[in-house]
Write a structure and sequence with these properties.
The chain is an alpha+beta fold and 182 residues long. It has a single domain (2-178), classed as Chorismate lyase-like (Chorismate lyase), CATH 3.40.1410.10. The protein has six helices and six strands, in the order H-H-E-H-E-E-H-H-E-H-E-E. A hairpin with a 2-residue loop joins strand 2 and strand 3. The protein is globular.
């Protein structure tokens, strides 16, 4: 199925990149997903999620270090391409970075770009596979062609050039990556 090949290509690009936002921007430019041709982030300032013990451990925080949470949807035109849950350690960022993150919709990777960070993807979940629906005997033939809203999820740790973790991000990608105009 063509969509599954597209999903695998996007997944490979995301795994090879340190910036999901830049990767999505290039992807959308190449595939003419929507217009205008610019990724924009929209922050949900009302959503909060506490950091799990697993996240605290991965960030290697002390008891007195604060953790912040940020939720952002990345849009391309009218399409939500991904939703990101991001936990980060403000004390490991500059004052300017924290100001940007707290007062704008700037994507996280853009705000912290000067850290010269790298990204380690710890978990990849393909949330959709065309065969998974066919394996369910209760599935109707129509349902075989229905792609769920969420199709891919990455969990990654962002680290400074000195290998200090400062952020955990869980990015969930939507079926709108398939909405090409070609």
């Amino acid at each position: 199925m063509r969509q599954y090949s597209i999903l695998q290509m996007l997944n490979a690009r995301l795994l090879a990149s340190k910036s999901a936002t830049q990767t999505l921007q290039k992807w959308c430019d190449e595939h003419h997903v929507a217009s205008p041709a610019k990724i924009r982030a929209v922050r949900d300032i009302n959503l909060t999620k506490p950091a799990s013990d697993d996240i605290l451990h991965a960030l290697d925080v002390s008891d007195d270090e604060q953790i912040e949470y940020r939720s952002v949807q990345l849009f391309y035109g009218d399409f939500v391409l991904s939703e990101a849950d991001n936990w980060y350690v403000p004390s490991r960022l500059t004052v300017e970075m924290n100001h940007i993150l707290n007062n704008s919709d700037t994507p996280f990777g853009v705000a912290v770009e000067s850290l010269n960070f790298h990204r380690r993807t710890d978990e990849v979940q393909l949330l959709w596979h065309p065969n998974s629906m066919a394996e369910n005997p209760q599935t109707t033939s129509f349902e075989l062609f229905v792609i769920p809203d969420q199709i891919l999820q990455h969990r990654a740790v962002l680290k400074t050039e000195h290998n200090i973790p400062f952020s955990i991000v869980i990015e969930t990608y939507t079926k709108h990556i398939f909405d090409t105009k070609q």
